[in-house]
Design goal:
By secondary structure, the protein is α+β, with helices and mostly antiparallel strands. Helix content is about 40%, strand content about 15%.
Length: about 210
Amino acid sequence: MKNEQRAGLEASPNPTNIMQWNAVMSGPEDTPWDGGQFKLTLEFTEQYPNEPPRVKFISSLFHPNVYADGNICLDILQNTWSPVYDVLALLTSIQSLLSDPNPSSPANADAARLYSEDRREYNRRVREVVESSWLDSSAAAEPEALQENGHAAEQQPEPAAAAPTAQEQGPDAAAAADPGVAEAPQAKRQRTEDHAVPQSTEVQAT
């Protein structure tokens, strides 16, 4: 099994478990599902392709043939499965089911009722699902972006501390830096005393 891709469909195996696949399905164009991005998982067994994989939506859907837990009520996943179906053929059938549900075999009774009796309200609920899928996609992208930004921040060197100005270092430093700056009286008096009293070389014990 290898990565599968077609317009509006993409599927690939889990890097750590080839029997588990992740898929992303775009909503069919020119339908209320248009623009949506829906995530699915596929779990294969050792009996594949003689038995179908278990497929379920991870994204929340409002659809007559999708259960609340994401499992899908579709004939080819049950009694009409054939070993000739590959991953893309299976996902294409599910994609078609989005815009062409079977309300006579409902997995979601509320969605099936609205689809049959109030198509306008049904379409409004579907558009809510589509908009929710955009938020899910954005939320999934944020951690990766934050991780990249955090890594860049770790590598960014700390700015060098600015050297203190002569004024911040004290009046003596200011005078040394600029001869035009007059010494403070206390500093001038201390300088005079230093010249008047000889320095002692003895260290007085405390």
